[in-house]
Design a protein that fits this description.
α6 links the parallel β2 and β3. The N terminus is likely disordered. The chain has a 6-stranded parallel beta sheet. The protein has 11 helices and 6 strands. It has one domain. Helices cover about 35% and strands about 10% of the residues. It is of the alpha/beta class.
Length: about 325
């Protein structure tokens, strides 16, 4: 049995986007959308005004029919030149590559802009030692903690989805493919998930090699938006501390479905006595009885019902 030692206990802080928003950084989905619009000529990423969990999950809803109508073209079968036929394949590949490029560049630009604005917070009152003798699991890409807080006495910090300043790949996307999108690609074998092949689709269009290859490009793009979960990295990082953490404090993470597997893994490995949650908004609101987000967690009964705002911790 794990016993609490109060002040001597090690805390694990989980940092979400609300933490950066609290520090007045431009990292909302609206900010991301503004960056996207500088490059996006296809208007594919347009789900602004929501939190990041909803935005990332929204990428799983892929309107295959609408995309096909907009971008799939029939080759010129009457031409003697093969380039007049396979040109439609290369054109589709270019469109999908551009969409993926726009996403990545917009994300990088948003983080770069946010990092440049971190210094605007240097003259605000910040308890620089609040993370002393703790662990930090950050879902953010920014260097907010490294720039504004003393890190010398932090036992460990990891950016599970990548750290911009280190040049890491920035992990981003939906958790699981949406069944309807997969069904359109492959109507007979939904259970095989992202490993499905569109080769067996039984509509006439897909029997055409040139049309088929265009659908394949669309499917590859769809799969590229799936988040590469870093569970093994989390397990390896936290293993040395699994008998030392008694309390987990969440700062500004929605705890939505897209990252749920991380939280459940932490509960399984650390078995903390208590979870405390703060949100960017609704300070001191407590657990909303109509909010089923938290109730889906196996450790729901461990969550302190007095959910508060981030500012109540950052003092």
């Amino acid at each position: 049995m794990k016993y609490s030692q109060y002040e001597n206990d090690m805390k694990l802080y989980i940092i979400g986007n609300g933490f950066d928003l609290h520090h007045n950084l431009p990292t909302s989905t609206n900010d991301f959308q503004n960056c996207v619009e500088k490059h996006d000529t296809y208007d594919y990423y347009s789900n602004s005004g929501v939190d990041w969990n909803a935005y990332e999950e929204g990428l799983s809803y892929f309107d295959v029919a609408a995309m096909a109508e907009s971008y799939i073209e029939s080759p010129d079968y009457l031409s003697d030149k093969e380039s007049d036929r396979d040109g439609v394949i290369f054109q589709m590949e270019q469109i999908m590559d551009t969409m993926y490029y726009v996403r990545n560049e917009a994300l990088k630009y948003m983080i770069l802009t946010a990092n440049q604005k971190i210094f605007d917070n240097r003259y605000h009152f910040i308890n620089k030692d609040m993370f002393e003798n703790s662990l930090i699991l950050s879902f953010n890409y920014t260097s907010t903690i490294q720039e504004l807080y003393n890190c010398e006495n932090i036992h460990g910090i990891t950016h599970i989805h990548g750290f911009f300043d280190d040049g890491d790949e920035l992990i981003f996307g939906y958790a699981n493919p949406e069944e309807e999108a997969l069904r359109v690609f492959h109507p007979h074998d939904i259970d095989v998930g992202i490993e499905i092949s569109i080769r067996n689709r039984d509509e006439d269009d897909h029997d055409d090699f040139y049309i088929h290859k265009q659908y394949q490009s669309m499917y590859d793009f769809y799969c590229s938006n799936q988040k590469k979960l870093q569970i093994d990295n989390l397990i390896n990082w936290i293993a040395d501390y699994k008998d030392e953490v008694d309390e987990i404090i969440v700062l500004g993470h929605s705890m939505g479905f897209v990252d749920k597997v991380y939280f459940e893994e932490l509960e399984k490995m650390l078995k903390p006595l208590k979870w405390r949650i703060s949100r960017y908004t609704n300070s001191n609101a407590g657990i909303d009885p109509s909010d089923h987000t938290l109730k889906c967690y196996s450790f729901f009964t461990k969550i302190d019902p007095a959910i508060c705002g981030i500012s109540d911790y950052l003092i």
